[in-house]
Amino acid sequence: GKSHFISDISCQNNVNIKNKTIIGLADEKDISKINSDTKLHVKGDTEINGNLYVTQNLNSDKNVNVLQSLNVGFEKNISDNTAKLNVNGNSEFVGNNVIYGSEYIKNNLVVNDKATFYNDIFLTNSISLKKEPFDNIVVINNKNNNG
Hints:
two-stranded parallel ribbon, elongated
């Protein structure tokens, strides 16, 4: 049957609920708006002191704040996560995005409209541009291996 608790529920071990777990949603208006496919609904701040593993999608209506490194799209942990943002697969950044520090692009950097670099750019391979105006370009260690 159903149980109604006016005060807190304390448990020393586990609380197992077959269908859904709803935490912090006391108003029936809030409960009527929840996604019926979701098993856990938490209203308010949630702190997880251990690891949080997400096997499918991590969707956020506002912000995802990360104190150290953000690894997206990797099936295994990255042992050498020296960059603050590690993205595997196709990613789309919409709006004005500023990346501070060093970022490494392994394959292709595709820019549809405009790219602005405020500091140095280091390329390990060649760069091919159809049309791009350049000002104040300095090339260091330009080596041509073709002769």
